[in-house]
TrEMBL record:
This is Glycine/betaine ABC transporter substrate-binding protein.
Amino acid sequence: MLDWPEERAAEEDTAPRWYQPGSNLCLDFHGDPAASLAVYSDGNHHMALRACLAAFRRRHPAAGEPFYATTPPGVLLALLDAGRLRLGNLVIAARPHVFISPPGVLDRAVAKGAMAGHMPFMRSRGNVLLVVKGNPKGIRRLTDLDRPGVRLFLSNPEREAASYEVYRDTLAGLARQAGIRLALLADAGRVVYGERIHHREAPEAVADGRADAALVYYHLALRYTRIFPERFDLVSLDGAPERASADNVVTRLHAGLVGDGGAHGRALLDFLLGEEAAGIYAHHGLARAE
């Protein structure tokens, strides 16, 4: 099991810490659910969001440490609808003030009356392959995925449809571009699907040898190679991120207030749409959405 770093927006915390990896370790709910500022966000850019929230807190100390959730969007929509979510034996009830997700997800929140609207925020910079450090299988291009025995990790087609569709369309587009047919996609034994949270499951699958490569957003692979430099390497596809073609599909994120945004939501949204946040996201491999 990978030893994930803590990802709260707090600069430091002297409170006692108690956890058992694999039992009561919770990676995608951060901070105190009773905080005066709560943010829901899809999880793949959690590292950049955490840095932004920490910077926002330094500018607005009265807001305190925010609570933020970084799960697949469907979970957050369900939590928004029900007002509570059971996490094992724990119940979380925290209504968000800011919601970040692909525009289609936020459209559903608007349709339910939870949000008045949303605006462009950030975008990804294409997709790459994550492999074990040293790349022992020699996977350097798309055609290498079709070698016998090579196994590829992809996010779950049903529970994480947004990311799965980006990855599926990228594979299809790059295969057309290369004039090949990716046979492994028709071989259920060679595709390892995640269950619910691919931004945690993809590196775990590669690290423990269940998959030889994982197709992930460039910014996710960048994150993994930074926090686990001895475990992973990144393999570019189609020149991503600098020279990727339109076949290497990008995902776009929007952001907006839930209700009136509470006491601090408007200030946070303004911060997220500003230059400091853009610089933080650029450092983590994303770009400002047009």
